[in-house]
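INFO  loader      accepted 1 record
INFO  loader      residues=218
INFO  predictor   begin
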Amino acid sequence: MADFMRARSSSQKEERMTEIKKAADAQFAEKPYHMITLTTIAEQLSWSRANLYKYVTTKEEIFLELTREKWDTYFTALRSAFPPGCGYSPEVASEVWAGILNADNGHLKYSAILPSIIETNVAIEKLAAFKKFFHQQTDAFTELLHLNFGFSQEKAYEIFMTIHYQAVGLYGYCNAGPLVEKALRMAEVNLIIPDFRERMKEFIHMNLLFAIENPVFL
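INFO  predictor   done
INFO  writer      dumping tokens
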């Protein structure tokens, strides 16, 4: 096992957390969530489990931080793509938005287990900080939707969350794991997997167009 040096400064602690998150993220790309443990993360880092406990208490703590990072990347891309006064038509907006979802969908995989798994085993202070971050970022982007398309910010929030949950479900359907694929073959079920980007483009366009053309529902 490699020598472990406990972090002393804030920057060193941040470096350790970056290492921990990188190891957990790499494992989540290769195996189901339930197969990842603090032990497997510690082993990948060549640390003892006791050393890992100096920085995190639960596996979910790590994944909550990873979820925040994935969402931050997504929000940054959205704000950059939809500046005030961009003048996009619903067709262009749906193309741009679907392209972002397709190119950087890391937050979708994490969001699929966020409410039912990750959020159930973290300190309340950490969860409150995550919720504050999420809603501040959501408000910032829905304000851009409000400015660019004219519907209320409340309606913009509804559209944003509707698109998000559709994307989470569709992404999971389009990216079934090896066990599911094996089960489908055993059951002799031949599913036609849709194109994620095209389906999301259609769905986003439908929601934007309806909101613009039906102000009575705003």
